[in-house]
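Reviewer 2 asked us to include a model.

Predict the structure of this chain.
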Amino acid sequence: MNPYHQEPPQYERESDFRRFIRSRKQAPVNTILISLNLLVFAAVEMTGSALDTMHMYRWGAAYAPAIVEGKEYFRLVSAMFLHFGIQHLGNNMLVLLFLGDCLERSIGKWKYLLLYFLGGVGANILSVYHEIIKMDNVVSAGASGAIFAVIGAMIYILLINKGRMENFTARRLIFMAALSLYLGVTSVGIDNMAHFGGLIFGFLLGILLYRKPKRSRI
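Predicted model (structure tokens):
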């Protein structure tokens, strides 16, 4: 027997659950935002139905006359945490989980929080203005305006970082955004102005909030 022989070190594989918990600690703000959306949806369902327009209105969904004439400006924020059904919620939260985590790690938690809210509120304001111009008032809700703000900011960051950020590339993200906008425009019942508004506001906020890390010189 070789006295100098040693067994190779045994490395404990990280479980999927531990990996998930670690990823949540790296993006605490996005974790809280997703949790709030889930909790609000549960509360809405426990008191009625998320598919009931009047019930959603009572919970704070956006409605142009109530916001402009009734001065219920809180709806610009509350509407961001309401969703019409489980599919609407699931689609938005799945996108937010992957994109939001990446953006929060890139710009920091407080800047991410600011961008998310300003982008989402800006998208809702543009949507309300568009409804007033068209005189087509509908009850609307969803986090998609804020999510498109996240996409807009990520596109800016990718463009100034030679088209790559973690596992995302500028080409893939722009294609995804374009496809989402196209599907929205060609579908019924989609608040496209909030999507376009979120994308624009997010890109502009990305310019204001993101600073490219300086390379250290040896």
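The first helix runs from residue 16 to 26. The longest strand covers residues 164-165. We have added this to the supplementary material.
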